[in-house]
Specification:
By secondary structure, this protein is an alpha/beta fold. The protein is 37% helix and 21% strand. The chain is built from 15 helices and 17 strands. Helix 2 (27-38) crosses helix 3.
């Protein structure tokens, strides 16, 4: 696996990074500052609401730390530029929303096939299509998982606060370079554009991942060496000659139609995440230990759900909250003990049914699963969720 080092070892003092301390900051801006601390030095993107603050702030900040910002003609060019930067050994990021995320899917699939570590911040808005460009939505959950064709495993984080926009952006870069995969910060319009207090910890407490480089001479290097779950990665200009293609390829990177090689390659690509799902996957539980009904909510919706749980408890209802911090891999194991003791589940999300499909896949024949869909454009109020709690609460 890649090496974890302290920030102090990874950056030079002269770089204009955000100093440790307490700040009052917008979520999108916090993601930028975190990316710079994580080592991001290239941004490629195309403007789209409600992620524009990320591109705007990156355009100012990257030159201050020796990085490069480029606005491309569209999202397709942007995602491919990130792949090129990654193969140059540079940590890179883009940000988008809805329609732009759709345009990136072929490039995301290519990044998976050639194991290019990149970070995408998707600030979800109302859909489908152009939808509600300035209003909230949570409709990209399944697209993040299944948007490109073929078999692969995604890592996607679900921040619910400005602090988590900061923390999980750093974690996204770490996961991308640890496992050589594209990683998505799957936020939403409210979390991206809200302003809250955040704390930047001392640099020595921030661990970041750097690229694992080859330890063999160039003539022995295999860029997709199947002996490794995550092969070491040479960068352009380091003296290694190798072939990169989004076609099915052998350990050298050369295209092939061999089923045996296809089996080895695709199995390894998915195993990188599946075998580490409990290392990567994260969740938070609130008042769930004795709950008879557990609400499952994420992003901005989890904040309203948390307040609804408090109100329900005041009224004597044993209700808890399960908040997935990773959408993918989904931390299904965090619910198991509660379901095993008979707790029922209520999924609340700003869409017509996405994470609820995952919950049904794991627990449909084990416990009752209730669902509260919410059309994009607004966040359900705690009172709305409380009404649903009272409607479905087990008697």
């Amino acid at each position: 696996m890649a090496e974890r080092i302290s920030l102090l070892e990874a950056v030079e003092k002269k770089e204009a990074l955000l100093e440790p301390g307490v700040y009052f900051m917008q979520g999108n801006i916090a993601s930028v500052e975190a990316a710079l601390i994580a080592g991001c030095r290239f941004y490629a993107g195309y403007p789209i609401t409600p992620s524009n603050e990320i591109a705007e702030h990156m355009s100012r900040r990257l030159p201050q730390v020796g990085g490069v910002f480029i606005q491309f003609e569209d999202e397709i060019a942007s995602i491919m530029a990130l792949i090129g930067a990654a193969y140059g050994g540079v940590k890179s990021m883009t940000a988008t929303s809805g329609p732009g995320f759709s345009l990136m899917q072929e490039g995301i699939g290519c990044a998976f096939m050639i194991e290019a570590p990149i970070v995408i911040v998707d600030v979800q808005r109302g859909g489908p299509s152009t939808g509600l460009p300035t209003l909230v939505g949570q409709g990209d959950i399944m697209q993040a998982k299944w948007g490109s064709h073929g078999d692969y495993e995604i890592v996607a984080y679900l921040p619910s606060s400005v602090q988590e926009m900061f923390d999980l952006t750093i974690e996204a870069f770490n996961a991308a370079w640890e496992y050589r995969v594209p990683v998505i910060v799957l936020t939403d319009q409210r979390v991206g554009q809200m302003i809250e207090k955040i704390e930047v910890p001392p640099y020595e407490e921030i661990k970041i991942v750097v690229r694992r480089k080859p330890e063999v001479p160039p003539e022995e290097y295999l860029p997709f060496d199947s002996r490794y779950l995550v092969p070491p990665m040479a960068a352009a200009g380091e003296g290694y000659r190798f072939h990169v293609t989004c076609l099915t390829h052998d350990d050298r990177g050369y295209p092939t139609t061999s089923h045996n090689i296809s089996r080895k390659l695709v199995s390894r690509l998915v195993a990188k995440i599946r075998e580490n799902e409990k290392v990567i996957g994260r969740y938070e539980s609130y008042l769930a230990d004795d709950a008879e009904l557990i609400i499952i909510a994420y992003g901005i919706t989890s904040r309203a759900a948390r307040r609804a749980v408090k109100e329900a408890r005041r009224e004597g209802l044993k209700v808890g909250l399960f908040r997935p911090i990773t959408a993918w891999p989904f931390p299904y194991w965090g619910l198991k003990e509660h379901v095993d003791r008979g707790a029922e589940l209520l999924v609340v999300e700003i869409n017509m049914g996405q994470i609820v499909r995952v919950i049904r896949e794991y627990y449909n024949n084990i416990t009752k699963i209730h669902f509260m869909p919410w059309a994009p454009g607004e966040v359900p109020r705690p009172s709305d969720i409380l009404l649903k709690i009272k409607e479905v609460y087990p008697r």
